[in-house]
User: Fold this.
Amino acid sequence: MHDLTQRQVEILKSLIEEYIETAEPVGSETLEKKHNLSASPATIRNEMVKLTDLGYLKKPHASAGRVPTSEGMQFYVKQLMREKELSVVEEVAMREKVWDYRERSDRFLRALVKSLADRTKALAIATTEDGDVYISGYANILDMPEFFDIDVTKNLLETLDELGVIQSIFAGVIGDETIHILLGDELGPRLKGPYGCVFANYKSPKHAGEIGVIGPSRLNYTNIVPTVRYFGDLTSEIALGW
Assistant:
C-alpha cells in the first residue's frame, strides 16, 4: 500500500465513516462541517483528489462527492477501524436470545442467524461441515440503498441459492485470524459488486462451520465485527454439547 500522510489517513477515515452512515457520496464541505479535520475545504478537496489518484476513493457519475473503493474499504477495516467493545449487557442479551435452543444444532443455528440478522440489520448466514446453510434477514438488505439496484439484489439472492457457493467463499479464506472480512474481489467471481462479508469460524471436536453476515461493502464494521466474533465464540462453546 502507498504511504499516506497523517492528514490523508484522517480524511479517508472520516469520509468512510460518513459514507457508512449515509450511503451517499461525501463532499469536502460535509467533511469540514461534521468532522474535526485540521484543514480548509480547499486542502481537503486536494487531498481527496490525491486519494482518488491513489485508488482509495472514486467519484460516482453526476456527483461532486466521493465514495471509497474496495481498496479504500480494505485499508479502513485493516488499519483504521476501531472495534466497539461489547458491554456485558449486550453479550448477555445475545446469549439469552439463543440459549434455550442450545441442545440441538439445527434449532440453535436457526435461532442464531435470526438473532444475528436482527442485531446487525444485515443478512446473516451459518454453515455446517455437512453443507447445511441457514440464512435470515432477507428483508434487511432491502432497506439499504445499494440493494435498490435490482441486479445487485438478484445476483446476491441467486448466489445464496446455489448450494456450495457460500461454503466455497468461506473455504477460500486462509489465515489464523478468528474473524474474516471480505470485500470486492475477495468474495470471488460470483459476488462481483458492492458487497461486504464478515464471518467467524466455530469449532468443537465434532462440529465446525462458519457464522457471518453479508451486506453492502459499507457494513457498520465497528459494531458487526465484535458481534460476529461473539456469536462465533458462543457457538464453539455450545457445539461441545451437540
Q: What stands out?
A: The radius of gyration is 19 Å. The mean pLDDT is 91. The chain is about 50% helix and 15% strand. The chain has two domains: 6-80, 88-241.
